[in-house]
Amino acid sequence: MCSDLIESLLDTMHQSGADFTNTFRCLSRLRLSQNMSESVADVKHYIMQQCATLEELQNAFAPRMDPQCVHTSVVCFDNYDNVAMDDCCGSDHVN
User: Who contacts 43 (Cβ-Cβ below 8 Å, separation ≥6)?
Assistant: First the structure.
């Protein structure tokens, strides 16, 4: 039973891309006491404080390259023997 719980935690961490160090540091905040539900609530609150908002994630993973430059880059890579990258995008191709 305990091994299933650990395996599930590790699998969830892997699938979600969780930071292992931060996850275990967060779990170390869990106090094994008489009032376990309060301790769990405190840890849940702490975890939620560490999460990025949807807007933060969208901004972090937004495309940063001009779509025309992406297309041109693909053409350049397909013909990399014939064309230098500087001819394709120049130096200001990243936003």
Answer: 26, 27, 29, 30
Which of helix, strand or coil describes residue 28? Answer: coil
Q: Quickly tell me which residue has 């940063």 as its tokens.
A: 64
With beta carbons less than 8 A apart as the criterion, state whether 62 and 54 touch: no
Pull the structure tokens for residue 51: 């999460």
Given a contact cutoff of 8 angstroms between Cβ atoms, the answer to whether 27 and 43 are in contact is: yes
Angle, alpha carbons 7-10-32 (nearest 5°): 85
Of 50 and 41, the one with more pLDDT: 41
Proportion of the chain above pLDDT 70, given as a percent: 82
Q: How far apart are CA 11 and CA 33, in angstroms?
A: 27
Predicted confidence (pLDDT) per residue in 48-90, tens digit: 887 788 898 889 888 888 888 888 888 888 776 665 555 555 5
The token duo for 76 is 């350049």
Partners of 65 in the beta sheet? 94
